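For anyone still unconvinced, we reproduce a single protein record, the chain in one-letter code, the fold tokenised, and leave readers to judge:
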Amino acid sequence: MKKFFLVLVMVMLAVPVYAGGYNYVSADKVKSWIETGTPINIVDIQVPEEFKAHHLPGAIATYSYPVKSDSERAKLDNAVAETEKNQDPVVIVCPRGKGGAKRCYDYFKEKGIAEERLLILEKGQLGWPHKEMVKTE
């Protein structure tokens, strides 16, 4: 019986680590990569109005936020195809770097993009502190 409870506790402790594991990247790191020309894929999931108002240079617009429906996930397919052409990091940008970004991350992972390449921009586009780099349309 003790062995059963020990195994149960170990499983319960392991599940949150697996379930909540997402890779994040700071705005400063992304800024550095952009400034130095380091190859990266920036996948922006903001809705059209938000993307037009503010996005990072070189971002792939998907207009897939909040990435909840099949039709919204399908909007990511072109970005998945672009990221399959290289082995560069994939920085996912959403309004706040939360649920939509996680769903996008999960979708890219399901499509075979290596998790080591997937990164979520901390605090999303609204938390981007380097306003001088923001592009508008």
Notes: Confidence is low (pLDDT under 50) at residues 3-19. Residues 30 and 121 are 8 Å apart (CA to CA).
